Amino acid sequence: MDQVLVYMTKNGVLSTKEVEQILNQPDRSRVCNLGPTNPQNGEIYVYENSSDKNSFLSQKLDGICWKHLGTRNVPKNKPPLIKTYYQEQVDNRRVNWYRHVYRLSKNDKESLKLVHYFGMSRTTSVSADTHYGLRSTSTMVRF
Questions:
Q1: 115: enclosing H helix or E strand
Q2: Cα separation values, 88 from 28, 76, 85, 110, 112, Å
Q3: Rounded to an integer, what distance in angstroms lies between the CA atom of residue 90 and that of residue 83?
Q4: Stretch 58-75: mean pLDDT
Q5: Domain ranges in the chain?
Q6: Under DSSP, is residue 36 helix (H, G, I), strand (E, B) or coil?
Q7: Which fold, 8-119?
Q8: Which of 56-60, 66-70, 122-126 has the lowest mean pLDDT?
Q9: SS3 for 18?
């Protein structure tokens, strides 16, 4: 299964219920082990959870410089999910392009990771004087 497959697309943030449903009952025909080289706004990928050093998430094969914004349990009470937040950095500035990575909080060997890209389209050309929607480094993006 060495191929890149878009699992589905959705603009905006996924709900906890949507992520749980996908990770608990995935369509295995759309699960992949390779990452995109040019992810687009709204694209969602579901990956086999691998600790392999050559895996997509460990090597950052999407070619984007990500700033890690934190990891937290979702929702806070009896969390079924662990969500990790990333935001793209360009020339030490953060832009409105995000990657959220979800996994089930239970420690299953066959658990999956759901990766959602959204925000300013990667194919949009941006001039140097464009406002990037910068946030201070002490502010975590909250959705």
A1: strand 112-119
A2: 29, 26, 10, 29, 23
A3: 23
A4: 82
A5: 8-119
A6: coil
A7: N-terminal domain of TfIIb (2.20.25)
A8: 122-126
A9: helix
